[in-house]
What does this fold into?
Amino acid sequence: MDEDIAQRLKSLRQAIDQVDARLITLLNERAQLAIDVGRIKHGAGAAVFRPEREIEVLQRTAASNAGPLSHAQVTNVFREVISACRALERPLTVAYLGPAGTFSEMAMQRQFGASVTGLPCHTLDEVFRSTESGSAELAIVPLENSSEGAVSRTLDLLLATPLKMLAEISVLVQHNLLSKSGSMTGVTRICAHAQALAQCANWLNQYWPSIERQSVASNAEAARMASEDEGVAAIAGDAAARRYDVRTVAAQIQDDTHNRTRFAVLGAQTTQPSTPPARDKTSLILSVPNKAGAVFHMLSPLASHGVSMTRFESRPARVGTWEYYFYLDLEGHVDEPSVAAVLAELQQACAFYKCLGSYPAERVNSQ
It folds into this structure.
């Protein structure tokens, strides 16, 4: 290497080393402040995870960024800083639909960073039970998919749980066809979660229409099965492929290239209103008598108080009388006067009313 170039690189690297030393000092200063915050929270019995505060920090740091790092890169760095500092206050355990390598685990890592302990569960029922019993402080569960709609078991479990919605996170879902050998030779079954099979149905019909499709508990479980049986191919993401050492037969086979799954973080606590420009959502489950105009009258308080609805999903009540539960997402926090007024009227008008909680609305970015 030219001596002049070597000297210039040496000078720049020395400058980087000096910046790194300052960063370490500042990171540890921040960590000590987090420890002090944790002591106060512990004394007051306050929750460690404050999603509205974390959103505020991430949005403020992105807004103050002047480059050359992108806003997304800055956000990713600070998400891990927050994760490490949160763990110093008190380590968190988060229940998710396992085994390791699922999109639920990916959503957990995107929301909480690396400094969190994941508790993989075999079923969504177990995810709820583990969190309700205190085996995990928080849960992360799939709510809906952009191409296949609501995750029905999650909706059913939300009816009875005392847990509240604290945050939302969406994950870009990219499915791969995987096998032990990297080919379809000898494969007699394609296994995946039922939603993944549905999300790839057109592709499968075109390329492998004669191979049996089997629904299993999760895509990661399918990848594990494929790693042990050459007769099984799996539909799963990159994380599951790496975890279970299976090879890609075909990449990104989902029918919708913009396919996303929205997840909810659940816990026993409640949230405070977010600081603008962050926005909040409030989720509800409602039911009305089966009579003419009942749904119209149920929704009329939203119009009269100027509250927007961003989601409306119906689910049979399973009581044999053609009644339904309605799942709604509203803009705003329960502590905002307009939202509080709507909720008060809904409680009076509805045969069944449950507020699932208020939480910061996610800004969806490409991944």
